[in-house]
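Hey, I'm writing a tutorial for new members on how sequence and structure tokens pair up, and I'd like a real worked example in the thread rather than a made-up one. If someone can provide the structure for the chain below, I'll link this post from the tutorial.
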Amino acid sequence: APAAAAPATPRWPDGRVNLGSTPDQKGFWEIRPGLGGTPRAADIPLQPWARALATYRTSRTDLHPPLVRCKPGGGPAFFNAPGFEIVDVPEERRIYILNIAGAHSWRVIYTDGRPHPSGDDLRPSYFGHSVGRWDGDALVVDTVGFNEKQWLVGVYPTTERLHLTERFTRPDLRTLSYEATIDDPGAYTAPWSLKWTIAATSKSQWIPGGEVFEYICQGE
């Protein structure tokens, strides 16, 4: 028998894609270790000082990412086990991404057309300042204003010059694709990208009917 068609992508009444739950289709995105999608270390265009720091971090067995110490993880580091939920609030023109693990963190993506703060108003933080726009069915998120404390991708360092672009697509109910481009002239010689997909056949899954649960993080 032919395989059953995947449930359709949830949409708002105006036709726009909903990346999270709807009243009749609740759920969250469960993450299992090993999302992958990161280029080989040799292919990441690290500046010499950044490569030396990444090598040092890799060599230490007693050095852990800030996320392990219950600090927030920005950008790609936010999407870690056991999972996350996306909450689209059209009346606020904001999208929230809630992380189950780590520091009980949430990201705010402004979709009201506002610009990034500038000058002293842009205060560096773990998550930076994120604005989003829709490119067809894809949510494109532009983020600046990161601090240098988090490990955004694995052991690779970033600086306050980091400009992160993320792209989210949901071709059906159970599939979420993510792509991130890291543009940081303070640490890299060129922009580079990573991507992963949560699908019906992957270890990570959309959990229909599931709800995010309490997670206690005890840091060092």
